[in-house]
Amino acid sequence: MHAAVVVPRVNAPEILPALVIGAGQAGLSASFHLQRLDIDHVVLDADHGPGGAWQHRWNALTMRDVHGVAELPGSTPPPRTAERANLAIPEYFTEYERAHELPVIRPVHVERVENDAQDPLLLETHAHGRVWRSRTIVNATGTWSQPFVPRYPGMESFAGEQLHTVAYPGPEHFIGKRTLVVGGGASAVQFLGALAPITDTVWVTRREPVWRTDDFTPEAGAASVALVEQRVAAGLPPQSVVSVTGLMLREQEREAERLGAYRARRPMFASVEPRGVRWADGSFEPVDIILWATGFRPAIAHLAPLHLRSAAGGIQLDRGGRGTTAVADPRVQLVGYGPSASTIGANRAGRIAATGVRRYLKGIASVGAADVAPTDARPTEAHGAAPQTAAPLTA
Hints:
Layout: E1 15-16, E2 18-21, H1 25-36, E3 41-44, H2 85-99, E4 104-105, E5 110-115, E6 123-127, E7 130-134, E8 137-139, E9 161-164, E10 179-182, H3 186-195, E11 201-205, H4 218-233, H5 254-258, E12 266-267, E13 271-273, E14 276-278, E15 284-286, E16 289-292, E17 325-326, E18 329-334, H6 346-367, H7 379-382
């Protein structure tokens, strides 16, 4: 466990120009660029130490296995070695926070963000019994705290073990246990690669897997990000960048491929029973463990009182989905959301978010606070009506 990096803010102003929620890659990038722009801010992070979601990943994940960690601005990332990612990246983040004296305060669990009852241009962030007041918010809470498991009839009756990949205990746990891997993304492919050589596996997906046959070049990465941007620009719920890149096998998965783990893929089952799963045609597969490699959802429930979602169900961002400003409320920047919810776009999003904060602050300074209001400010909330509450959420 790494020691927490806490920057005391004894003389912090009553109203901050900016507040960042989350100290993963996107949050640290945003803080770095806010600091370069001389914008006073704090970063509230729910974890006890640096490292973002990386510190919680399984021990078997090494720096050689990860998709590639884009370096934080002004630094060099850890080398692609056999070192555990959940050690190397927290150490990297720790040194980065110290070297740049970033104002990270932890552990601070953000419960909700809402309009200030006295000033519709202010936001209130409720965390650990304290209210932080800020002109702008950079939300960098990512997805790790929101693992997604779909619902199927009979799930509660299953007598075996059900795990989401967020709680993956390591391959040894699965030895001798017939394992059903659910999901059609890169993580499902990787877990099959780890498990098929040591135990019996069954793979199920909702759709036919789409395999890449070409190299994943920077141009291909940019094209994949663009597909996610299109959804965000339309206000639709974002898909992950990984979900639109197509699937590729690494050397680590070649043994599972030889064993037929990927050829034996089946469509989704209809129901879960105590000893396994059953398909609509009546066929049955007995299994001991169901591993849900079904991804994550954006961790944004704490923003619900701001009513940022569009009628299409997602949060629409500016610049045709390439920006980070919430169209419904220009006080709010989202990084690690949609196209920046991966190492491909997180650093760029931090820079764009800091620029968006500066633009908003300049706007209210030049026009006058009384003449500028966020596009989604609701008079009932601005005058003290009870706001919609959101479930507590780790930031």
